Amino acid sequence: MTSTLFSRWTRTLATALLAGSLLSGCGYNEFQTKDEATKAAWGEVVNQYQRRADLIPNLVNTVKGYASHERETLEAVTRARAAATSFQITPEVLNDPAAFNKFQQVQGELSGALSRLMMVSEKYPDLKADTSFRDLQSQLEGTENRITVARQRYIASVQDYNVTVRKFPTNLTAMVFGYETKPSFTVENEKAISTAPTVDFGK
């Protein structure tokens, strides 16, 4: 009885070790590692976009104090921020090209609205000299740079993951477990969003 139990336990252990070895050899563990890397990189992208969104209310209020009649531009920024912050950021976004494109769209619209706000600000020397405004423009410039870096890291992470999905023999594992390529930022969108709004007022 003891011998039979031991033999059964040995076979179970051997099967588990063999399965683990096969999964590791066919890239299963590699997929897990790279999937987590893309999620971490995406998390940093989202954090930097949120940092930018958090700056906008103070920026709008500061501009409003000097250029309240620029209502259309101020409202456009506020609407774009609302759309960007209301977009639900879920893990599914990383595997849903339509949702990912929507994310790009709302962030692109916010970038455009911010650029127009900064151009309007050029008309007001008192605003440009305001300490609070200059501090906010500096923070915005730094945040835009962080966004660019975070996006580049995410793009590299997704490229690495997608190559693993497509190359042999890990593409066989991808087919078995249903791993698909992840969407990334498009070339056209990269030009639009990664270009920081003009925030240099002749420093």
Automatic annotation (TrEMBL):
Q: Does the keyword Transmembrane helix apply?
A: yes
Membrane topology field: Single-pass membrane protein
User: Record's Gene3D superfamilies?
Assistant: LemA-like domain
Question: Which superkingdom, per the lineage?
Answer: Bacteria
Q: Which InterPro entries match?
A: LemA-like_dom_sf, MamQ_LemA
Q: Which UniProt keywords apply?
A: Membrane, Transmembrane, Transmembrane helix
Its principal location?
membrane
Cellular compartments annotated: Membrane
Q: Does the keyword Transmembrane helix apply?
A: yes
Q: Report the family membership.
A: Belongs to the LemA family.
Under which name does UniProt file this protein?
LemA family protein
